């Protein structure tokens, strides 16, 4: 009897461990593909909790004489659906089906089966403990499993396995509940029923193990379906998925499916980002790049021999490592991250600005678009206040600011937010980048700044002569008087998602 109670307690622990991982996996995958992590986690948690309640309610119709059998069947179903949830979401995205509907459907199904677990396990434990001890044991062990899962998921599972393999791994771990119970109680089942459960278990095991075995090939096929060009690098870092493609001379980098640059026209973006503000400084010696782990902004800065120090702060070390080691990217960035003037730090940009005592002549904000709450904070009033404090007296900040055509309100929100912190002047400008469309920037000067007409290094696109064109906005891109974005009210996030909703 003691052994039986231990097996049931093991089942409770595994149930708690797997259930929270499924929830994290679905929400994280949704954030990867759709952005807006707050929305994805809110929908997932809300639907999950609601359908856990549905599952708990349905448990009252499970009769005592079929309790163990039905519990094993439910665990087999949970292992199959939960374990294959991410592969199903990947498939849905590749086929162009409605991703959010599939995400909600999977969350609801998993919620129902998880909701069935605790009531049924509690009833199976009744003969071993009194009611109050039984409830205390079941809930405390279940919550312990959930706690361990929430710690292991971001620290180990996501960076080492990625969401695809983690999903399948936890389906197999979940399957261990059905395997253990069937092994221990096998003699108590009618022979025909025992054989049916055994074959169901083998079928689920083979399905999950097969998906795990072919996961690399499936991921490759999925990537080939989603990305038109030949994939030359694929990697899942702790923070994001990195995909590099190549077609003839065009090398492209994607982070979580979003295009970061195209080799055929990235110079238009990076020359506009870097040379326009530098041409307004009497001297530029100490530069901070926030983001820009691909080394392309650093490449443009290194064209100025007077620049002595370039500090590049990028959260994900995998991006900078790719820029240092990948032949295609090294060729594109002119080996910039190996230059002794460039120092790379892997930190959060907001935290770095808060902690550093350093002052800079130029701060270049080359971060991804504000499509999640964690990125939107890097376009907030508080963030630009920190940037201003880290500039020297004559310092300049420049930031990429998404598209003033596709996401007009988001662009002007970034402009208005930067203007709200008290810079002497804030100048918006934009450039046509064929692979992206019309793209915007915002330059903010701490003191009066004007064109200095320095000797310009070799450029393919930028020259002072074209600046009037870059700073002229047609009527359909005029200022919309968008609200200032803050940590408490991240208006830029909602403007951005609303603006890109149609085009995506």
Please explain how this structure is put together.
- The protein has three domains: 2-220, Growth Hormone, Chain: A (Up-down Bundle); 222-259, no CATH class; 265-500, Vaccinia Virus protein VP39 (Rossmann fold, 3-Layer(aba) Sandwich).
- By secondary structure, it is an alpha/beta fold.
- Helix content is 56%, strand content 15%.
- It has helices spanning 2-34, 37-58, 67-83, 85-95, 99-124, 131-185, 191-213, 215-226, 266-278, 296-301, 317-325, 327-333, 349-355, 373-376, 381-389, 408-419, 467-470, 491-500, and strands at residues 230-236, 241-247, 250-255, 258-262, 286-291, 309-313, 342-345, 360-366, 391-400, 425-433, 437-445.
- α1 (2-34) runs antiparallel to α2 (37-58), α3 (67-83) packs across α6 and α4 (85-95) packs across α6.
- It has a seven-stranded mixed sheet, sandwiched between helices. The chain has a four-stranded antiparallel sheet with strand order 1-2-3-4.
């Amino acid at each position: 009897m003691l052994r039986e109670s231990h097996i049931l307690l093991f089942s409770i622990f595994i149930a708690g461990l797997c259930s929270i991982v499924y929830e994290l996996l679905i929400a994280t995958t949704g954030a990867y593909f759709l952005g807006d992590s707050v929305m994805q986690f809110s929908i997932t948690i809300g639907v999950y909790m609601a359908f856990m309640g549905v599952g708990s309610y349905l448990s009252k119709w499970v009769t005592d004489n079929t309790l163990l059998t039905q519990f094993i069947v439910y665990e087999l179903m949970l292992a199959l659906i939960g374990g294959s949830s991410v592969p199903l979401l990947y498939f849905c995205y590749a086929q162009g089906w409605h991703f959010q509907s599939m995400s909600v459907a999977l969350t609801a199904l998993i919620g129902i089966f998880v909701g069935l677990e605790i009531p049924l396990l509690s009833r199976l434990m009744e003969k071993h403990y009194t009611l109050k001890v039984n409830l205390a044991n079941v809930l405390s062990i279940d919550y312990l499993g959930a706690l361990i899962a929430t710690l292991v998921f971001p620290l180990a599972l996501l960076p080492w396995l990625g969401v695809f393999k983690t999903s399948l791994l936890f389906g197999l771990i979940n399957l261990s509940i059905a395997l253990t119970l069937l092994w221990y109680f096998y003699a108590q089942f009618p022979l025909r029923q025992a054989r049916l459960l055994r074959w169901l278990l083998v079928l689920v095991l083979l399905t999950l193990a097969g998906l795990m075995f072919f996961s690399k090939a499936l991921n490759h096929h999925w990537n080939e379906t989603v990305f038109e060009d030949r994939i030359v690098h694929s990697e899942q870092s702790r923070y994001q998925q990195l995909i590099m493609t190549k077609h003839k001379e065009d090398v492209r980098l994607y982070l979580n499916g979003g295009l970061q640059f195209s080799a055929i026209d990235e110079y238009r973006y990076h020359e506009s980002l870097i040379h326009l503000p530098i041409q307004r400084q009497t001297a530029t010696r100490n530069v901070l790049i926030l983001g820009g782990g691909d080394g392309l902004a650093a490449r443009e800065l290194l064209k100025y021999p007077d620049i002595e120090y370039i500090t590049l702060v990028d959260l994900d070390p995998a991006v900078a490592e790719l820029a240092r080691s990948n032949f295609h990217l090294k060729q594109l960035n002119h080996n910039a991250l190996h230059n002794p003037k460039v120092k790379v730090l892997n930190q959060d940009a907001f935290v770095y600005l808060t902690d550093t005592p350093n002052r800079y002549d130029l701060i270049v904000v080359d971060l991804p678009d504000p499509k999640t709450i964690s990125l939107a904070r890097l376009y907030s009033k508080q963030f630009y206040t920190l940037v201003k404090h880290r500039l020297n007296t004559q310092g300049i900040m420049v930031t990429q600011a998404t598209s003033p055509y596709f996401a007009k309100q988001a662009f002007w929100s970034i402009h208005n937010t930067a203007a709200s912190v008290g810079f002497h002047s804030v100048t918006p400008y934009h450039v046509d980048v064929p692979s992206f469309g019309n793209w915007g920037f915002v330059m903010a000067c701490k003191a009066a700044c004007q064109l200095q007409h320095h000797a310009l290094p070799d450029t393919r696109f930028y020259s002072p002569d074209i600046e009037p064109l870059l700073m002229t906005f047609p009527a359909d891109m005029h200022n919309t008087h968008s609200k200032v974005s803050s940590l408490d009210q991240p208006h830029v996030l909602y403007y951005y998602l609303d603006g890109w909703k149609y085009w995506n």
